Sequence to fold (275 residues):
Amino acid sequence: MTQNKLKYIVLGSWRTGSTVLHESLEKHPDIKIVYEIFHEDSSINTSGMIDISDVMNNLFGKRKFDIEKSPFYCKYHKSNHSVLSQLPGNYLCLNQPLYKMVDYVFEKFNAFKIIYSQININDNIWNYLSLIKDLKIINTVRQNYFEILVSVLLAYKTNTWQKTEINQKILDEKITIDRHLCDAFFYLTEFETEHYTSLFSDHDNITIDYNSLFSWDSTIEKVQKFLGVRHVKLPNKYYKRTNEKIKNLVENYKELSDYFKNTKWKKFFDINILL
Fold:
């Protein structure tokens, strides 16, 4: 693996702003990125991105997927009685060690993105990444886990993950969320955030809060300074998906708010929170 070359990953939970940050940095003339190399469908290619399926196929030939191995795997519409199985997630299995793919990617590119649930927590690839000591980490976080969950479920339901035009209309229907699903998701997100932050604590890292993305120019300048690249004005290619209050998007919001009012999660249920 090339030493002294800029290498970084954008790492975070669902719906924390990782996509807008990662894709905007792709426009920097000194940065070459790929998207989510551990995504269950790595052939997805965003405009202007390198198609990672070509990289994988060059390395390993035809890919083998085994997404059912993930303990959190389940598409939003799939019927299953397990609470955790209602959470979207995936796991990619290859016929060769994943570290070979990581080495190959960092030989050709500077960065890729990982959503926590895309790799099994016990997979050795996490240890391998943690041993790359010149690997920089951009952590994306969103303090309100209920916002994350609502955003994920609405995106799955509408099949609209980003808003690319300011006048784009997204018709969000109200959703009902099981309180046990909320509880499981809150604990899972808290655990993953703490675990992976700790895993890379000895690396050069920066944490970008979701809300700081609304001060875009200063935030993207801060990130470029952290990466050690020249400052270039980079546009934010996405718009806030909705400015609706969460309480108006969740049918049983009052029930959930009452259920969690005496728990440490009560802070997530401020009635004025906008999604």
